[in-house]
User: Fold this.
Amino acid sequence: MSAEATNPEAHPEARPELRRRGRTRLDLRRLGRAALLGPTSRDRLPDAIGHVAEAHRAHHPDADLSVLRRAYLLAETSHRGQMRKSGEPYITHPLAVTLILAELGAETTTLTASLLHDTVEDTEVTLDQVRAEFGDEVCFIVDGVTKVEKIDYGAAAEPETFRKMLVATGNDVRVMSIKLADRLHNMRTLGVMRPEKQARIAKVTRDVLIPLAERLGVQALKTELEDLVFAILHPEEYESTRALIAAHAGERDPLPTIADSVRGVLRDAGIAAEVEVRPRHFVSVHRISRTRGELRGSDFGRILVLVGENADCYAVLGELHTCFTPVVSEFKDFIATPKFNLYQSLHTAFATPEGYVAEVIVRTRQMHRVAEAGVVALGNPYATATPDAAADPDEERVDPTRPGWLSRLLDWQQSAPDPDTFWTVLRAELAQDREITVFRADGGTLGLPAGASCIDAAYAQHGAAAHGCIGARVNGRLTSLSSVLSDGDTVQLLLAQDASSGPAAEWLDHARTPAARIAISSWLESHPDRAMATTSAARAPLSVVGARGGGANAVADLPDATVRLAGCCTPVPPDAVAGFLVRGGAVTVHRIHCAAVAQMRAVGRTSVAVHWRATADCRVTLRAESFGRPHLLADLTEAIAREGVEVVSATVEPPVEQRVRHSYTLQLPDAAGLPALMRAMRDVPGVYDVSRV
Assistant:
């Protein structure tokens, strides 16, 4: 962490949004002098952390500051004599990191660990000393953000440090909060480092830290990190964006006037609300300039409306859509359907009489805290409901803030012992910026990244047992494993009973989650012979024997015509049917929804009216999909016979991926018995689907 410390004034222009928000700019040189001089009295806080205490008390008025004093004294003593590359005393770095977290509303334990976060890594202080002085929680957090020794891991030190940090975050999200604040301060002070090192650190920040900040909902850190990375990795585009913002600053800004109109509308409606203009940060301006082309005055910011209750949000929305012209395509309800990073707000936009389009964000004050600070705003997630309740030391503590994506990440990282694999897959996982929820057949849910397939769902639900997955039903319909899932789908996964079955190499083309890709790749590597074999041999053409010799109980309104039931759809009473005259003067009968009906009409075949005789017997072709097992054909034939149905012909295809397809042409004494016959066939062990051909 000390290696990333450099000149604090190198990129002052990369922090405009902080000045706009009125955030205190840390004077490192003044802090350094205060840190060296120390306090004038034992009973008062050191001057160097006075502003930290002030920011902390703004969110936690009753906080006990004595522990912060002790943590600061240990940090200052242990770092004494160490200097940052920019020349300030090193203690200014943990102070700055702690101030960032204090302004976000972090609780006392987080701030204590933040002051000490570099002591174990860069000084003689040990974890045992931290534990003895500040307790297990502070010790755990400090250990979580401490880098692994480069001398032990070499080039793998950085990915292994992130692996360690993520595992620790799985037990305590405050670990990542400190890491994000630590990286933000180091990015602010990156200017005097060599350009190639600046670029390397900025790329890691872009690929790993910014996505983590987004997923943990810490937008205040994420937006500033984005601007700092933008300035380093894309200096030309950054300069053009800065010039665009500077040019706008000299023009009349319509947003304050529009905000006044919104205040008036809400005041007349009796809705208590705070209305303010929120300027866009650099990256946001750059993005909309690429999508909208030339920007107008209202494009450089958005209007934020803060209210007290959820219901007030919708009341504000109603007033805005009543009094202004809404842009319907811009409406999004993240209150009813929150983002996977805890974010909740209503987004809308309206057009003004002057032709401006104003974007509006409506949220409660609590939503605003979470939108800005994410998990940091949730305080201590492990605090017991009753402070005096004793926690069971043997019971694993459950983090109520742990999101589904983090649980998935923690699961698959165990299967990626190779640091390069972990590092590559981690970046790919974090590049997924949207999450869906699908429902399992047993009533549970699965959280998956957008674009996930049934293969991903199989490994998320069944782990290694998913190697034997041979199919899936999505919303009740049989589908291929490559099918992409949508938010809200219900998925039932079909597993083979043969333990030796395994995935096909083609599965990698459809797997999106790291857990699935790692598991499939590992299996293929351990079964090279199976991997080389063709795993999806082409099926033999389905042999269906229809009732082409006669029309059974179908009658055509054409004297002396031969009637044939089409083998493509095998109609039975009381199906709605259509007849067509074909070569030889015969009439072919199809179900009305058969695809061949449209083809017959397209080529101009003569349509013939067809009706069913009063007799109830019929002929039909059924297809049974099943897992391969001994005696399956005999069991299916027996089930058909028990229903009093005659088997006219049967075709069994070769097994493919442990699946077998049977086709039967059957003569039923009564068409009304068809549903019962299909149920009886489905009840045969191993059969998972029966359908009419």
In short: The longest helix spans residues 195-215. The two ends are 66 Å apart (CA to CA).
